[in-house]
Amino acid sequence: MWQTSPAAVAALIPFVCQLANGAPSNKRLEAFEIATLGGAAFRIEQVPNPDFYYGSRRGPIALARAYSKYGHQIPDDLLSLIDQILGELGLLKGSKDEHRGGKGKGKGGNGQNAGKCSKGNSTATNPDLGGGGKGGSKGNGTATLPKGEVAAVPAEFDSQYLCPVQIGTPPQTLNLNFDTGSSDLWVFSSETPITQVAGQAIYNIGASSSAKVLQGAKWSITYGDGSSSGGNVYMDKVTIGGVTVENQAIESANTVSASFSRNKNQSGLVGLAFGSINTVQPAKQKTFFENAMNNLAAPLFSANLKKGSAGNYNFGFLDNTEFTGDITFVPANTSAGFWQFTAQGFSVGSNNSASQSAPHQAIADTGTTLMLLPDDIVTAYYKTIRSARFDGASGGFVFNCKDQVPSFTVDVGKYKAVVPGEFMKFAPVDGETIETSKTCYGGIQSAGTLPFAIYGDVFLKSQFVVFHGGNNELGFATKPL
């Protein structure tokens, strides 16, 4: 059932074992040959997405995608800006009201179970997250929708690097986005209407001798603008690196949101959160990692993402050339289906700055680019940048690109995770590059009313992060930047 490439087994790769249980701890332990450990271990290298959009105003779009993914209402000013940006890029199809759902009369729902909107600015409310208060007769009503990502925004704005995945027999290679903030493995397929395919590599179901339909199963992800992706479910072989899961649920797209249709190099997503938030009905399906975990040399994977270049994921082992010092492990609260942890406080500026107590829940999400933090932390950070201001039209904080930008440190257990100030220059606002732009969009933005902070790629690219499924822990360590 399990296959591991000989090269992966024979490789001399340092492996950190005897990982911590329970309370936060620091471990630096000895290295072994993978061949002596038993089980599978492999590295998967990211590949660049040629369609990734580097230009101005990528920041507001990243914020809108993050809000919609987690069911947070997108402010009207931000929606208007997105309409303008997509129109300028020739990516806006249909009328503005069709794109945004319009702003008109609509009756909002109550509490967790929101009602329908006739023409309201319908924004997803994740039932797992709570919220969704009353909407006014002319207000922005909310509809209870599953988790997803904003469909109004093309995926090339978010997925700078992708990972090759092989599906079926013989194997078909598709470049997919690894996402620790979701739990569906869905792909463009031979069932996807040709009008929704723009050059993506597809999963040809009929060409795979090992594909079997999962009878009666359907999947569906609804996005913040009311559009959706969904379709049938097949069981087939999936190989990532040197490991094959023989019977992995593959969610075949009969319908694909225009967001993903426009990105010809991304053929879908690999969710690496927990199966409890998988969208397959009537029975939720396990993720690739959950299926592979017990057959790995160690039940974990690490993310070594990088700023400005392709990073990598390691499954089943830890490479101690990729991090420095000790790894601090903290408990992961998986009850909501995410890699959730507790951050105790923060500081701004030099490592000698005193930490301020600010306990908050957070999730580690490789599928979100920004850091979304509680308002008091966001305000405290931007107070230290002379030119920083909240730009309502952009939905977030901006500042002069020439300003000295301080580092941001978050306390996780006994570990202090430092995000360099340069990482906070997330995107240009009035130029095509950071170097040519006067104004920069900040890498830290408000989490609004979300019940937890989102530690996305701005944070993850500054750290070596371990996702330990055996112990339900997250590990953090410094690394060469």
Automatic annotation (TrEMBL):
UniProt cross-references to CDD domains, sorted A to Z: Aspergillopepsin_like
Active site: 179, 365
UniProt-listed GO biological process terms: proteolysis
Gly residues composition bias: residue spans: 129-139
Alphabetized UniProt keyword annotations: Aspartyl protease, Disulfide bond, Hydrolase, Protease, Signal
GO terms assigned for molecular function: aspartic-type endopeptidase activity
Residue stretches making up the Peptidase A1 domain: 161-477
Name of protein: Aspergillopepsin-1
Presence of keyword Signal: yes
Cysteines paired by S-S bonds: 401-440
Pfam family, one: Asp
Signal peptide: 1-22
Region of interest: Disordered: 96-143
Family: Belongs to the peptidase A1 family.
